[in-house]
Amino acid sequence: MLQIPLWNRLLIILTVLVGLSFAMPNFFYGTVERHNDAVAEIERTGTQTPEQEADVAAWPSFLPATLVNLGLDLRGGAHLLAEVQVEDVYTQRMDSLWPEVRDALRDERDTVGTIRRIDAEDGLLQVRISQPEGMAAAVAAVRELGQPVVSLTGGFGESTLDVSGAGDVITVQLSESEQAATNDRTLQQSIEIVRRRVDEAGTREPTIQRQGSDRILIQVPGIGSAQELKELIGTTARLTFHPVVGRASSPDEDTDSRQMILPSVDEGGGYYILEETPVVTGDDLVDSQPGFDQQTGEAIVTFRFNPTGARAFGEYTAANVGAPFAIVLDEEVISAPVIRSAITGGAGQISGNFNVESSTELAILLRAGALPAEMTFLEERTIGPELGADSVKAGETAAVIAFAAVLIFMVASYGLFGVFASIALILNVGLIFGVLSLIGATLTLPGIAGIVLTIGMAVDANVLVFERIREELKTAKGPARAIELGYERALSAIIDANITTFIIATILFVLGSGPVRGFSVTLGIGIVTSVFTAIYVTRLLLVFWFERKRPKKIEV
Amino acid sequence: MRLRLVPQETKFDFFKHARLTFGASIVAVIASLVIWAMVGLNFGIDFLGGTTIRTDSTVQVDVGDYRAALEPLELGDVVISEVFDPSFADDQHVVTVRIQAQEGDEAVTPETILAIQSALQEAVDPEMTFPSVESVGPKVSGELIQTAIIAVLASLGAILVYIWLRFEWQFSVGAVAALVHDVILTIGVFSLFQIRFDLATIAALLTIVGYSINDTVVIFDRLRENLIKFKQMPLRDVMNLSANETLSRTLMTSGTTLVALIALIALGGDVIRGFVFAIAWGVVVGTYSSIYVAKNVVLMIGVKRDWSKPTDGGGASGTQFANVDA
């Protein structure tokens, strides 16, 4: 008969209590949020102010302090979908490969003759040799430069380079598996740099996620606009050092191949002709600090290279004393000093028209690293905090009214049983919030709609059971038996109906993004908790009541 | 005194007007398709690409002013629509400005957005604020369409398979027919009233699919039980019995869900109104279709009657009940 073992009862009660305790902080959202912020701040800075202390004390530390994250549409903030131009990196790789290829082919000079790099499409390195007969040897020599691909996703043993010869031209490019591995690294590096830059700005809970093979989703709550966010992360700060070939007066002057013309920052209208292949890049930087020149008192930025960078820089400066070299930041020549002596220590400084602020900013940018490739923004959304606050308020009101209406409806239809179902329903909403907090999910406006929908649908399982009990009562086997049969026979319908809805929630979760995903999460969780509360909690309440009253007759 | 949506025991003949109801469904589906083809959906920027800017101002809205202010910027197709919501203050006038996607793969440039904002502030109200700005590049919007279509088809497919596994293939055909009916009718309503159709609407469509199948499954579950219990009763009568037995539950659940959704439509703010409306509409057609479409289709195809044997071949034995009333 209506038996639920004691351990089962305890388990049900315990589950509900744990769920509710995780949900509880959300009812004191402001207090708990300030508490969490203060704790994080104290941990970060190691000091605490009286206000922070008060904030920490406002919420007892033994209570759970997990909160449901509010989505951008509820809190306001910016959302960006960036596409990383991963192909940029192929070109850079080819540029840095050229000196090695040149040296390798020079060793074979007897068979291949003289060599010259010719202009090629992005991502290709093409070299013309004067003795086409030596092509086989040339290709073999360049192939030697390839290394086995290092990646987790296969392509083991394959070379990083694809080398082919046709006529008198050797074409070198990254092999397919190396391209994939490179893309992966580029994206990870970009994400890391974006994360560091967003963190430097000290915003709360930014979401920085990889999407697909070349995209990054960036969501930052509390930031003023997508434009601000773009400025924060979009500054590439790509630092390179190039040999200077000469000066130019316009950007359209003719140059040799492998050279480029870049504008100068300090001299309005001045241009430099530079070698396209840099001597050293910012990738080899290990540190950068703002500072002051001891002689002039001018604001400067100091930097230090890693050993590879230091060696390359030292060798180049030793060989080119007296020649100018250009410090290029984001396609602009910051300065083009003349090398007075070899710089072997790997440290240097950049001077230009800096003030304290701009030198500090540049130092941060250099330290945070360059984005390995350019990013284009495919999607931008800005939601103002007022709109978000209005949405929360509207959602709350609607949810409360919906809740009250459903409860009245249930009690009017099923009397005492309706009361049990209502209690289960309240616990259900509590559990949804508990689970959302526990897994750190983000609540969005459609997510609130999902909860309201769940409130409507959560009664379904109860209704199925109650209707079934009514039917079983007609065949009169006594109330206890009717209740038991009601649960037993309604179960398959409950399970089937909820699994199908759960399938939909899963599909939405997998394929949806942003707000849609938020909706699918609350819907999915709502299905699980409503089945749990309907099958276990309502039943437990019924059993408690039944054991106390032992009614001869029940009315559902 | 208990609230009863339906009497304790009902004996409705749901097939009595099957020609009428099923015919009406077919007509509605065709009408929806025609409206969809003729008028088209009012796609949001999620699917078309472009930019929407929400403006908030204390000045009475004259759409002409907005249009005139944006004319010199040469942005192509610009749609300006005023938003109404009971939660707005008396002197709060909200407008959404939608601009078509500009050249290139990317979202609209910040310069363009700034130009639009200052043009509006200059022409309409210097105090105007912009609570939200959203921009989607054409590259992403193309992919979003694709994902949306995949999501809808995947849901239908997954349900087809699940119902097939749990019941019989005839049931899954009936269930999916009902779902397609619901989805098309919703698209029809969105075309007819030109409600904005975006990613959230797709989520709503899938929710409708989930809700409708939920309803259908409950009736099917009872049908399966009754088919075992009443082996000799004609299929049509078993179906009527099952629908009547579950009628009270069907209306109760739809009722509570609708009550909750109506609260959300009235008080949930204008941002998600379209989304919630789609779900509410879906609950209505979903309830209708599980009673009048799904069962009719199963009745037409017929169903295996002898559930004591594990394997079927039942399609054949069931066909004697086919075309009873359709």
From TrEMBL, chain A:
A GO cellular component entry from the record: plasma membrane
Cell compartment(s), UniProt: Cell membrane
InterPro entries assigned: SecD (IPR005791), SecD/SecF_arch_bac (IPR022813), SecD_1st (IPR048631), SecD_SecF_C (IPR048634), SecD_SecF_C_bact (IPR055344), SecDF_P1_head (IPR054384)
Keyword field contains Lyase: no
Any one GO MF annotation of this record: protein-transporting ATPase activity
Protein translocase subunit SecDF P1 domain ranges (all copies): 187-244
Pfam family, one: SecD_SecF_C
Residue ranges of domain SecDF P1 head subdomain in the record: 262-373
Gene Ontology biological-process annotations: intracellular protein transmembrane transport; protein targeting; protein transport by the Sec complex
Topology in the lipid bilayer: Multi-pass membrane protein
Domain Protein export membrane protein SecD/SecF C-terminal: 375-546
Principal cellular location given in the protein's record: membrane
Sorted UniProt keywords: Cell inner membrane, Cell membrane, Membrane, Protein transport, Translocation, Transmembrane, Transmembrane helix, Transport
TM helices/strands, residue ranges: 398-417, 424-442, 490-511, 523-546
Database matches in PANTHER family: PROTEIN TRANSLOCASE SUBUNIT SECD (PTHR30081:SF1), PROTEIN-EXPORT MEMBRANE PROTEIN SEC (PTHR30081)
Primary role: Part of the Sec protein translocase complex. Interacts with the SecYEG preprotein conducting channel. SecDF uses the proton motive force (PMF) to complete protein translocation after the ATP-dependent function of SecA.
Family recorded in the similarity comment: Belongs to the SecD/SecF family. SecD subfamily.
Protein name, UniProt field: Protein translocase subunit SecD
Organism of this sequence: Gymnodinialimonas ceratoperidinii
Name of the gene this protein is made from: secD
TrEMBL record, chain B:
One GO MF term attached to the UniProt entry: protein-transporting ATPase activity
One Pfam family recorded for the sequence: SecD_SecF_C
Protein's GO biological process: intracellular protein transmembrane transport; protein targeting; protein transport by the Sec complex
InterPro entries hit by this protein: SecD/SecF_arch_bac, SecD/SecF_CS, SecD_SecF_C, SecD_SecF_C_bact, SecF_bac
Claim: ATP-binding is one of the keywords in the record: no
Keywords on record: Cell membrane, Membrane, Protein transport, Translocation, Transmembrane, Transmembrane helix, Transport
Keyword check for Cell membrane: yes
Subcellular location, record wording: Cell membrane
GO cellular component: plasma membrane
Primary localization: membrane
TM spans (from-to): 20-39, 144-165, 172-193, 199-220, 251-269, 275-294
Protein export membrane protein SecD/SecF C-terminal domain mapped to chain residues: 120-302
Membrane topology of this protein: Multi-pass membrane protein
PANTHER family from the UniProt entry: PROTEIN TRANSLOCASE SUBUNIT SECF, PROTEIN-EXPORT MEMBRANE PROTEIN SEC
Family in the record: Belongs to the SecD/SecF family. SecF subfamily.
Subunit structure comment from the entry: Forms a complex with SecD. Part of the essential Sec protein translocation apparatus which comprises SecA, SecYEG and auxiliary proteins SecDF-YajC and YidC.
Function statement: Part of the Sec protein translocase complex. Interacts with the SecYEG preprotein conducting channel. SecDF uses the proton motive force (PMF) to complete protein translocation after the ATP-dependent function of SecA.
Protein name: Protein-export membrane protein SecF
Source species of the chain: Gymnodinialimonas ceratoperidinii
Lineage, broadest ranks: Bacteria, Pseudomonadati, Pseudomonadota, Alphaproteobacteria, Rhodobacterales
GN (gene name): secF
